[in-house]
Each structure stands twice: as structure tokens, then as C-alpha cells.
Amino acid sequence: MHNGATNYIDGVWREAVDGKTFTSLDPSDRQHVLGNYARSDTKDVTLAVEAAHRAYRLWRTTPAPARGAIITRMGEILAANKEDLAHQMSREMGKVLVEARGDVQEAIDMARYIGAFGRMPDGYTVASERPDVECFARRVPVGVVAMITPWNFPVAIPAWKMFPALVTGNTVVLKPSEEAPGVAVSFVQMLAEAGVPAGVVNLVTGMGAEVGADLVEAPLVSVVSFTGSTATGQTIMERCASLGRRVSCEMGGKNAIIVLDDADLDLAVKGAIWSAFGTTGQRCTAASRLIVHRDVCSKFTDQFLRAVQSLVVGSPIHDGVDIGPVINERQLAGIHEYVVRAVSAGATLLYGGNRLRGPEYSSGCFYEPTVLGAVTTDMEIAQMEVFGPITVIMEASNFEHAIDIANSTEYGLSLSVYTRSTARTFRAIEYLDAGLIYVNLPTSGAEIHLPFGGTRKTGNGHREAGLHAADYCTEWKACYVNYSESSTLVRAQIDV
User: Fold this and answer.
1) Within 13 Å of residue 202, how many CA atoms lie on the same side as its CB?
2) Burial classification of residue 11, based on how many CB atoms lie within 10 Å of its CB (0-12 exposed, 13-18 middle, 19 or more buried)
3) Is 250 among the residues known to form the active site?
4) What is the Cα–Cα distance from 343 to 392, expressed in whole angstroms?
């Protein structure tokens, strides 16, 4: 159990300056204390940002292949500790073990992928319109990157943000969610073991409204990278705009799976189950809407409900469990209120709708997998991100109607369509408004070599992972070198 010395600043593990702590509880058993962590404030944030700022000058001049080698070594360390880290994650935030292993694997894959960027081109050359002038552009780091990350992917998301920032020469201050501080501590310990120099990566634990806000305001921070709710993200974007600060926000989603009349229903049901109830529905790519063609809606619904009834809810570290706990009591209450309001608005409760209270659930935050029918686009449940084990079935009259329903929210992260038609496949890819489009696959995060992010209120246009992973934390520098031995001045555009 951690005793509070959980801030990592300038290469040293330390308590909060004021000695304050907060407690992390197991969502499967809220009577089980996992540890006490530093409850940081402005003073701790200032120390961490100043350490990152001091380290930046040396780190940015470290050869990129050397920086990449450290990230590659981090991948090896993650792989060696995958099982222990997955168990810690399951205990701390409730993700079932098979998914927790996948979370760690994403970070391993990202380390292997981004580590190689240290030896990849970081710019390009073009021909000049002037004789004896060399023109090229280079990608350069921006400085201190503040990272505010959520609890639902406590290894993968910090890896997505941090590895591209580090390999391009930036330094980092990480503020993890107060719901998953222990995994962040382990992650940073591994970075130190991999050889990240003191001050290059710093960790401050604490409350989001306190530490996160202080990080956004810190004068020496060059860019803020945030993943979390749309409301918080909008506040951060507004504040960064007023400060003239770069910001990358990955926010909410209201994802959908379209099941057309020519779909493989068995495959569609399997995809819908995974999309709706994986991670207990607590992920930004969860399919909280199932849009089904009216000709197959009854058959799909019957098959889907039978599959839902077979799902096992329980402790995430036990074999055979499909759905773990909701993260905390506040979220549990909020999820139930969404269901109550949906039924009051005219939705039909097809399955679930209750907190689980049996002996094996009495100390945890468990909610039944829940399905609502007769849902229309004007209902709150069809528009708002619930972040829980709830999905709704919406009937579509034809292909075009299904596309319209899918696009009817303010979000645009991950949309999926099940069809055997090549024409419908490519029309869906063109007309669906989202950053991630899946065909005959569930809504989930992108593979790490493709860009991840969304449109509209899902984000502010930046992408994580893929070739553009470092766009948010780098600038382009255009360079012109006159190597002529002539003393004649030649000006672009003018002397032609």
C-alpha cells in the first residue's frame, strides 16, 4: 500500500508539500483501501512544472534515436510486467482482467511503434525557387506538456500521449485521475527504470478540479493534453485560448452500431455485446446506441437480449466475468438516474435497470447490463453520454434513415455498420460523421498505427496515435540556407 510519497518530481518520489493525502478504494469492494496518495496542490504543481522546464533544454538536445531507445526499452519493461500491471488495474478501476491485459498491450505496442520514430524522418526537403538555396522543414518540440488523463484506460492513454511527446523532445507533467493513481505510479516507476532522466517525466497525484486546474494555469506549460468529459474539456479549451496555449482535447462520445437488413445478425450481436458492455460501458467508444433496420429489428433484439442475459457481472479479477463494477457510487447513481428518466420519457426497459445488491455485490458498485427500447432521437438517453453498462435500440426505416440517426448527436467518435453490401459499406464510410468508422466490427479504439480522435464535440481536431501522434506537441520550423558564394541578394517572389 502506498503511504503518500507518490509524487515524482525531478527524479525523486515525495509527499505533497502540505503532507495531504487521499484514499484510493477498490470499486469491487469499497471497504478495501488500495492506498493513500499525495493530494497535491499549486505548490506541488509548480515544483513539477519547473522541474520539467529545467530538464527540457537538455532533453530536447538528446539525439532522437537515444530518446526513441528509452521508449522502446519502456515497452520491454511493460511487457515483462504486463500481468502484474493488469491485476493492479483491475483492482483499482474495475476493468476485467482480459481487458486490463489489452490496456497494457496497447501501451506496449505504442512503445514499440513510437520508439522507432526516433530514427524516422522528422521533416522534409523541397526545391527552392532561388539558386543555391536549400529549403527544408523540421518538426520541433514545444516544451513542457501537461497531461490530464482519465481512469478508464490508465496505462494506454498516458502511453498514447506521453511516448510521442518524449520521443520528439518534450518534457512531461502527468496528472492521472484520482480514481486510478496507483497504476500511474507504477507506470512512472517503469519509465524511470527505462532510463528517462530526472525531470523529463514528472507525476503529481490529486483531485482533478485542484491539480488539473493548476496545471492548465501553470505559466511554464506549453501545451495541455486532456482526455475526459466534454464539459471539462470545453472549460480547458476556453482557458487555454485565453492564455494563448496549445491544447489537445479528447472528450465524449455517443457511439452507434448500425445493423442493416442484410447484416450477419450473429456477428452483429457479438459486436454489439462487446461494444456496449466491454469496460462496463465506461469508455468513450462504447456503443450506447444500436440502430437496427426495422425488417430485422425484432429478430436482432431477441438475439441480443438472450446474449445480454448470459453476461456475468462480478469481481473483475475472477475468471469468466464479463462485466466489472462501475467506478464509484456517484457514477452508479448517475447511471440509474439516466435509466429512470428514459423510462419516464417513454423508453421501454427491455432488460436490467437495477443496481445489483446480492451478497457478492454488497460492497461494490455493480449495475446490471441494461437495454432500453422504443428510443427516439429526441430523448436524453439518445443524446447524452451515460458512461455505464447501458445501451438503447433504435429502429431505422432504411439505410439513409440509419445514417441520419447515427449522425444525430453532437459527438463523432466511433460509428459502426454491419452490412454485406459493398455499396453500403463505402457510402457509410463517406456519410458517417466520426473519426473512427468500422464495418462489420465493434466500436472500439483505433489500432495504435492509425489516428484516434473524433469530430464535433468529441474533440478539438487533434489525433492521438498513428503518424500524426506528435502533431499536438510539436511545431513545424521552415529553414532556408543560402550556400552561394555570391554576394548578390536574391529575394523570393520579388526577383523573378
Assistant:
1) 30
2) middle
3) yes
4) 11
Question: pTM here?
Answer: 0.95
Q: What is the architecture, at CATH level 2, of domain 255-439?
A: 3-Layer(aba) Sandwich (3.40)
Q: What is the pLDDT of residue 441?
A: 97
* 426-482 residue pLDDT tens: 999 999 999 999 999 999 877 899 999 999 999 998 899 999 999 999 999 999 999
Instruction: Quote the CA–CA distance of 89 and 180 in Å, as a whole number.
Output: 8
C-alpha cell at 357: 445488491
How far is Cα 401 from Cα 410, in angstroms, rounded to an integer? 17
Task: Return the beta strands (E) in 15-79 as ranges.
Answer: 21-26, 29-38
pLDDT band at 491 (very low <50, low <70, confident <90, very high): confident
Strands of the sheet containing 123-127, edge to edge, are 123-127, 133-141, 474-482
On the question of a common fold for 7-251+459-478 and 255-439, the answer reads no
Catalytic residue among 250, 368, 385, 395: 250
β-strand partners of 302: none
Q: For residue range 346-384, list pLDDT tens digits in order.
A: 999 999 999 999 888 989 999 999 999 999 999 999 999
- Residue 415 to residue 405: CA distance in whole angstroms: 11
Angle between helices 297-309 and 265-277 (to 10 degrees): 50
Strands (E), 271-407: 287-293, 348-351, 370-373, 390-396
Closest to 453 in 3D by CA, of 444, 445, 443, 463: 463
> Which amino acid, 305?
L
Among the four given CATH numbers 3.55.40.20, 2.60.40.2310, 3.40.50.300, 3.40.605.10, the one describing domain 7-251+459-478: 3.40.605.10
- 59-98 burial, b for 16+ CB within 10 Å, e for fewer? bbeeebeebbbbbbbbbebbeebbeebbebbbbbbbbbbe
- Tell whether the torsion through CA atoms of 374, 376, 380 and 386 is positive or negative: positive
* CA atoms of 493 and 406, how far apart (whole Å): 49
Distance, in Å, from the CA atom of 323 to the CA atom of 333, rounded to the nearest integer, reads 18
Residues 6+ apart with CB under 8 A from 8: 14, 185, 188, 192, 201, 202, 203
Q: What is the pLDDT of residue 494?
A: 81
Q: What is the pLDDT of residues 116-168, one digit of tens each?
A: 999 999 999 999 999 999 999 999 999 999 999 999 999 999 999 999 999 99
Which of 413, 400, 391, 393 lies closest to 458 in space, CA to CA?
413
- The catalytic position among 106, 179, 240, 284 is 284
The reply to whether 238 belongs to the active site is no
Question: Domain residue spans in the chain?
Answer: 7-251+459-478, 255-439
